[in-house]
Write a structure and sequence with these properties.
Layout lengths: L2 E5 L6 H13 L4 E5 L8 H7 L5 E6 L8 E6 L3 E8 L3 E8 L5 E8 L4 H16 L5 E6 L17 H12 L2 E3 L9 E2 L7 E2 L2 E6 H6 L8
Length: 217
Amino acid sequence: MKGIFWNSRGLSDLAKYRYISDAVRDLNLDFFAVIETGKQDMSKTNLARLSGGADFVWHCLPPRGRSGGILLGVRANVLDASLIVEGEFYIKFHLCNRIDKFKWILMDVYGPAQDEFKSAFLTELVRACQHNPLPTLIGGDFNILRNSKEKNNDRFNYRWPFLFNVVIDSFDLREIDLTGRQYTWANSLPKPTYEKLDRVLVSTEWEFKYPRSWCKR
């Protein structure tokens, strides 16, 4: 199983479209999950542009205000999408591998940056996981740290990491290790803050099926 979770910081130029289509084609990807599209809608022409010549099934979730937006696509001749569920902060595909009939769930998540929405996000994440009867792969920008090591300074609020880790532990999820970098986000201040906000989580059953799998973020 080969796929990419990518925080695009907005699908605002042709270079980003080209990156997705080239990756789909050159890496023969089974799925592509885009976070922070900034797009209210995606035309059929633009979606076809992203597919790299492959037959992809895409679903788009518009952003809240000027931030966010999710786009999730799967290769139709490899994965059969029997159900697509849309939440406020996620898109969920119920999938079946066409070759071996393995059934699983793929979720693309974009959590709110604002504290006032984080409680609603975590509540929705819990409900989504409770309704995941199949092996599950969850990735995206959660906009929540898990521990103080995921930030380069000591301005750390333990409230949201504590609750986030409770959710992860409650559903026995494991995080796929990030390689090549320590952080996934930085601001533009003279002394920038670096944080790890993007991650990929898998259920035990999904990891049993794909023990050597890796994902790019």
